[in-house]
Sequence to fold (314 residues):
Amino acid sequence: MKPIVFAASNISPLYQRALAQHYEVLGPMPVADLMAHPARGSIEVIVGSGESKVPADMMDALPALRLVSVMGVGYDGVNVAHAKQRGAMVTHTPQVLNDDVADLAIALMLNTTRRLPQADRFVREGHWLKGAMPLAKKLSGLHLGLVGMGRIGQAIAHRAQAFNMPVSYTARSAKPELAYNFVADVKSLAAQVDVLCLITPGGASTHHMINAEVLQALGPEGYLVNVARGSVVDEQALVAALQAGQIAGAGLDVFEDEPRPLEALLAMDQVVLTPHVGSGTHQTRQAMADLASDNVNLYFAKSDVKTPVPECQM
Ligand code: NAP
Fold:
């Protein structure tokens, strides 16, 4: 009989397929139903995506829990402190998605400044027949401010070099080994740059880090790009800043309430929206599914894992 693993939410078909070779995947289902499930006492593993919620009561419904394996680098939906208290390991899929997320960040910068979705509509809707499209803003040479300078932040900074963009950043700590300018607080960073790009984890420590004051500091010529988590931005403040022309535009891949971005954002021409597709390529999702299932396989084979989250590293 195959061991049973519990899916905290719908998972990628690629992860599902990799898991199905060795395990029976149960769920998702409400915690109340899980509590009544006859197999719950034997389930050692929860699997999920970067957006999955894995709260304490879900873990406590599984007395044998030993591992939470997330297919995604962000794991802000997992109560890691509780997992540790329960003696369970949490794993994620770092590195394999750096290129895709960095590519999307640059794409959102180009799309907001050069207004490419608007240009596409301009051609399709026949406006070109009546005259030229209004001019856009040059991206090359603009000062990029990164909020977060980890694995993906560094991949974005590397790409920005090819656009002759000076790079400044903020993070929890300065990285003297990197040739970029560290700015200790996000408001000062916003005041110095033309494009503010967010690439931190979600969760309590970054919640609404981008608020009305930061947006005001970014200024009427400034652009916001968010490829981090929706929770990092106070979206009501963002809508107000865009409506008042306090910032020039925004490129957003992530939202506070997915998949339902605020109606006000949908209505704005100076905003480019993508549906949380930072890692959304065949190649990268396969690599993520492989790494997430490797963690599960290694746990069952050797009580070990490949890529624990930092809080669970020895
Ligand atoms: P990482 O290597 O851990 O880097 C995170 C960076 O954020 C680090 O520079 C860290 O600072 C900084 N940071 C963390 N907490 C902070 C705080 N409270 N204030 C300021 N800076 C803070 O992570 P990564 O692999 O680059 O991934 C970053 C995030 O991108 C993920 O957690 C996820 O939320 C998001 N993401 C989104 C997508 C998408 O589809 N849009 C895909 C993948 C990832 P230190 O360096 O000082 O520790």
